[in-house]
Design a protein that fits this description.
The chain is of the alpha+beta class. Helices cover 33% and strands 21% of the residues. A 5-stranded antiparallel sheet has the order 3-7-12-9-10. Helix 3 packs across helix 4 (99-112) and helix 4 crosses helix 5. The chain is globular.
Length: 236
């Protein structure tokens, strides 16, 4: 019998390149063969191979550029478990505490001012997924003054290593009935997203990692989108 030593990938560049190969195949699989009966089985096998090679800490964290020293979680719900970082916990509390006075009116203003545009990354296979940006480099104070004030306060308490802004961008997202957002990941785990429910009359749910998130109005959550996630909106 010929015995082979297990593949060991030590260099970051090599590990990233190997993850990229797996991710490219996974993206092709979920985009072009989403409804194939064996797609879940094959996707699970690819994720397990990434885990077995020591390239990820979870089989559904198929993101290309990973800082392997960072804490790993798909979803943190402050209602179920404490947020371990004081600044981050404060950010969620401020957003929830100012939901009625700032966040909700800003969302309605975005609709009234026709700020929503179709999501441009081609991730929704059917239906319509729209976004309205509050900040992207610069905050839209003209339309979202109250929320911009909140984001400035959050930026000051959010943990960061340099003097650069912690809040990279903020936006509202709107999913129309009958929309399928294909399973995907961010290209890195070096950013964390705050998700806040504004309206969810159909109880739309996101599958992420091994868990699910059904957005509740006025509640905020921490999401690591380096974990595979997808959303299916009902027809009505």
């Amino acid at each position: 019998l010929a015995c082979h030593e297990p593949l060991v990938l030590r260099e970051n560049r090599t590990r990233t390149a190997m993850r990229r190969v797996h991710v490219s195949f996974m993206e092709w699989l979920v985009r072009h063969h989403r409804n194939h009966p064996r797609r879940p089985q094959l996707a699970a096998a690819i994720g397990e191979r990434l885990l077995r090679l020591g390239l990820v800490s979870h089989p559904r964290q198929w993101s290309e550029v990973l800082n392997e020293q960072l804490s790993s979680f798909a979803l943190l719900d402050p209602k179920l478990e404490p947020i371990p970082w004081p600044g981050v916990a404060s950010a969620l509390q401020w957003l929830e505490g100012n939901f009625t006075a700032a966040v909700q009116p800003a969302f309605r203003r975005a609709i009234q001012k026709k700020r929503f545009r179709e999501h441009g990354e081609g991730l929704h296979l059917t239906g319509l997924w729209e976004t309205a940006y509050i900040s992207r480099g610069k905050c839209d104070v003209k339309n979202f003054r109250e929320v911009c004030g909140l984001l400035k306060a959050i930026d000051q308490v959010w943990p960061k290593r340099s003097s650069t802004e912690a809040v990279l961008e903020s936006r509202f997202a709107r999913l129309h009935p009958g929309t399928v957002v294909v399973e995907h990941t961010a290209d890195t785990n070096q950013r964390i997203k705050i998700h806040c429910g504004v309206e969810n009359p159909s109880n739309v749910t996101m599958d992420i990692g091994d868990t699910k998130l059904t957005w509740e109005v006025g509640r905020c959550y921490l999401v690591d989108d380096s974990y595979a996630h997808e959303i299916v909106s009902k027809e009505t």
